[in-house]
Amino acid sequence: MKIYTGRGDEGMTDLRDMSRVSKTSPRIEAYGSVDEANALVGTARPTGHDDVDETLGRIQNHLHIVQADFANPDPDEGDPVVTAAHVEELEDAIDEAEEELDPLTSFILPGGSEAGATLHHARAVVRRAERRAVDFAADEPANAEAIRYLNRLSDALFVLGRLVNARDGVPEESPSY
């Protein structure tokens, strides 16, 4: 398989149904932001914590499903789509991580260890991807579960960033007002 096709040289790209859209379309902006978040999650791995790395690996695979879902305005049966089960898996990961953490009593500054800071960065990119998805979904067909997944994923990355920092002995800092 050739990596280049030349089909995007004029600023257009193909959706899964082979319709052509501008590379600046809101749909492309949304799944491009998801791709960026996925790359950041990959940058955080390995964190040095096997259970967190396994969760992040599943998240990266889910993000590929989100991208395929967003790239397909009219999915057929058997096409990759985000389901409620994907969201529930994130919620379970959040709940499990929070059991190990001290309760949050104030806002915290994003940062910490290299992996923790990268997860906080990925969280912010996921928030952008969610905003882009909400934007395109206002005018085009979109799977609401995929948007819900992004909302929950930002929470998961926040909690996983906190967890990695706690395990690495990096204290959380609150902003001063």
Count of the domains: 1
Mean pLDDT: 93
User: Reading side by side through the largest sheet, how are the strands ordered?
Assistant: 1-2
**What is the tally of beta strands?**
2
Oligomer: single chain
Level-1 CATH class name: Mainly Alpha
What's the helix-strand series? EEHHHHH
Shape: elongated
How many DSSP helices?
5
For the biggest sheet, the summary is:
2 strands, antiparallel
Cα separation of the termini: 55 Å
CATH fold description: Hypothetical Protein Ta1238, Chain: A
CATH architecture: Up-down Bundle
Unreliably modeled segments: none
Describe it.
With 177 residues, this protein is mainly alpha-helical. The chain has a single domain (21-102, 111-167), classed as Cobalamin adenosyltransferase-like (Hypothetical Protein Ta1238, Chain: A, Up-down Bundle). The chain is built from five helices and two strands, in the order ββααααα. It has a two-stranded antiparallel sheet with strand order 1-2. α1 runs antiparallel to α4 (114-137), α2 (50-70) packs antiparallel against α5 (144-167) and α4 (114-137) packs antiparallel against α5 (144-167). The N and C termini lie far apart (55 Å). The mean pLDDT is 93.
What's a quick, concise take on this entry?
The protein is mostly helical and 177 residues long. It is built from 5 helices and 2 strands.
Q: Can you lay out the helices and strands and say which pair or pack?
A:
Layout: E1 12-14, E2 20-22, H1 26-44, H2 50-70, H3 84-100, H4 114-137, H5 144-167
Antiparallel strand pairs: 1-2
